[in-house]
């Protein structure tokens, strides 16, 4: 079965540290946690305190409790919701998880369900898990990657200001850092 810690390390490599890009619809972010989307995340309290201290934002990465909070956040809000522990192939689980972090769990699960030709309801239950685990992993990764890139193209067409993220999104979809 897939392991969360391995998948988490890959996601964090993509998500980076602290940012506040005015073109990012999520607004202020820390390690991929978007304030506009996850405004009630406990980590924002600690971040707001650290903003007033010397060494911000570098001081965030030294806060052990904040790092544990980030780890727990991803496990509860993404990995557990996609039943990552039940997916047998690590790379398949990592791909669904990473895209879920980037585009939302429902979007990622729906695309995965389309790849395995299941009803795309955005909820990954026992039937979806069984179908994903029976599907050829290499075929899944290839088809899922194409679906992710198509999704990114759609986003840029609807929101041209996101074009500056496109190359990074495609690299991420391809599994590059």
Strand order of the largest sheet: 1-2-3
Distance between the termini: 24 Å
**Biggest β-sheet description:** 3 strands, antiparallel
Class per helix and strand makeup = mainly alpha
Instruction: Quickly count the helices.
Output: 8
Explain this structure.
This protein has helices at 4-15, 43-51, 64-79, 90-103, 105-115, 126-134, 137-158, 163-173; strands at 18-19, 29-30, 33-34. The protein is mainly alpha-helical. A three-stranded antiparallel beta sheet has the order 1-2-3, with no helix packed on it. Strand 2 and strand 3 (33-34) form a beta hairpin. The model has no long low-confidence stretch (mean pLDDT 94).
Quick structural gist:
With 177 residues, this protein is mostly helical. Helices cover 59% and strands 3% of the residues.
Please write out the topology:
Layout: H1 4-15, E1 18-19, E2 29-30, E3 33-34, H2 43-51, H3 64-79, H4 90-103, H5 105-115, H6 126-134, H7 137-158, H8 163-173
Antiparallel strand pairs: 1-2, 2-3
Based on the model shown, name its key terms.
globular; Chitosanase, subunit A, domain 1; single chain; about 180 residues; 8 helices
């Amino acid at each position: 079965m897939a392991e969360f810690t391995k998948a988490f390390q890959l996601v964090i490599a993509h998500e980076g540290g602290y940012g506040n890009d005015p073109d990012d619809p999520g607004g202020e972010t820390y390690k991929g946690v978007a304030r506009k989307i996850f405004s009630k995340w406990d980590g924002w309290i600690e971040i707001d305190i650290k903003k007033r201290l010397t060494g911000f934002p570098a001081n965030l990465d030294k806060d052990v409790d904040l790092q544990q909070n980030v780890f727990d956040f991803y496990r509860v809000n993404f990995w557990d919701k996609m039943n990552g522990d039940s997916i047998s192939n690590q790379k398949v689980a990592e791909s669904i998880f990473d895209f879920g972090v980037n585009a939302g769990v429902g979007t990622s699960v729906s695309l995965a369900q389309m790849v395995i030709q299941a009803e795309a309801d955005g909820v990954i239950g026992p039937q979806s898990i069984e179908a994903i685990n029976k599907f050829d992993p290499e075929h899944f990764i290839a088809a899922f990657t194409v679906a992710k890139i198509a999704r990114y193209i759609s986003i840029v067409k609807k929101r041209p200001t996101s074009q500056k993220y496109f190359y990074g999104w495609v690299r991420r979809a391809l599994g590059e850092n």
